[in-house]
Amino acid sequence: EESVVVMDDDDSARERQLLEIESLQAMFPTELMLGPKAAEALAHPGRNPDGMLSYVLRLPVSLRNKDDGKKGQTSSSEVAGDATKPKAGTTTMVITTMCLLSFVLPSRYPMEPPRLELKCKAATRKSLSKANTQLRKLASQLCTGAEGQESAMELIDVVKSQLVLEGNSNKHKANGNGAKEKESQNMKRMKNDVVKGKIAEGEPSSARLLRIDHMNDSKGYMKLLRKWTDQLGLRGELYFRNGARRVEDVFVLLVGDVAKLKDFCLRLRTQCVDVNSRGMKCKEKQSRVLWEGEAVTVRGTCTPIGLRCTEYKKAEELVSFLLGSSSSGIIPSSAEMHIVEALGVR
């Protein structure tokens, strides 16, 4: 008789933790520092060490400094978060600095929120305390329900793109303007892994073809996929067919960095993207990768980052879109037969 291995909640949670950490490791190879338990678990999957997994990420964060009586400074009118109006004789300058965001994962994470701590030497204690409270509240909101939700990427996005810390002026002045400018330039390079809006072709790129069974809230679902595509610097095509009551047989062809593609698929698997028949938010349970490999690209051209959505009516039309000029010849000829068989088209 065949033995059936039944995974309990803790085993399932540990597996999800490791998948998330692997994705982060691919996306942040130099910024991620693993704790000893996490490093051991990834290096020796069979051992599954006892204890909580932990890691730290070094991330860029916005820092707002106020300088009394200084002239010639540039004040910022576009500050995220709870920006306050500067007092008379005070100028506000927003720069980018580095922070450390640490995660300690309880045994039941992601059904239970992670233990978080944000640290930044250039920020005031008060603003750090407020930021930590906000991040922990968000993590608690995400990690709810029977299945929970992996929260690392959303928390990282908040730190990088929304959070504004109050600067400790005395500490930051000691660094000097030259250090500020150098740090700002480094952060720009870190934030822009790809040039915003365009990705150069003729360079090595990977591609994935995904199939999504259906979309009940197609407008909201596609909007979210477009958002992810923009955030991750991917370019892609989405083809869908309108069924009687919902969008069905959706195919998404994505091109970009391997780590970014993995992250897209991880988000699709772990975040709420659609609504069920009762109108409640739900995760994608019926998506799969039909094909992945190196993309065929054309030198000397640039394709905008983003996701373009196109309706098709017949299977033959879908095949023409995927393998023809509409997809810029992304799929190599060696994979065409495999794609056609996967689509079930004869």
Give Rg in angstroms: 23 Å
User: How many angstroms separate the termini?
Assistant: 39 Å
Q: What count of helical segments does DSSP give?
A: 9
| Helical percentage | 25-40%
Quote the average pLDDT: 76
H and E order: HEHEEEHHEHEEHEEHEEEEEHH
Largest sheet: 5 strands, mixed
Shape: globular
- β content, as a range? 25-35%
User: Which structural class matches the secondary elements?
Assistant: alpha+beta
Annotation, overall tally of beta strands: 14
Would you identify the regions where 5 or more consecutive residues have pLDDT less than 50?
Answer: 1-7, 68-86, 172-179, 182-204, 298-302
Task: Give an overview in words.
The protein is of the alpha+beta class and 346 residues long. Helix content is 36%, strand content 28%. The chain has nine helices and 14 strands. The chain has helices spanning 9-27, 36-43, 125-142, 152-161, 169-191, 218-232, 258-270, 315-323, 336-343; strands spanning 32-34, 53-68, 90-105, 115-119, 164-166, 198-200, 206-215, 235-242, 247-256, 272-275, 281-283, 287-294, 302-304, 306-311. The strands form four sheets. Strands 1, 2, 3, 4 and 5 form a five-stranded mixed β-sheet that branches. Strands 12-7-9-8-14 form a five-stranded mixed β-sheet, with helices on both faces. Strands 6-13 form a two-stranded antiparallel sheet. Strand 8 (235-242) and strand 9 form a beta hairpin. The chain starts with 8 loop residues before the first helix and ends with a helix. The model is unreliable at 1-7, 68-86, 172-179, 182-204 and 298-302 (pLDDT under 50).
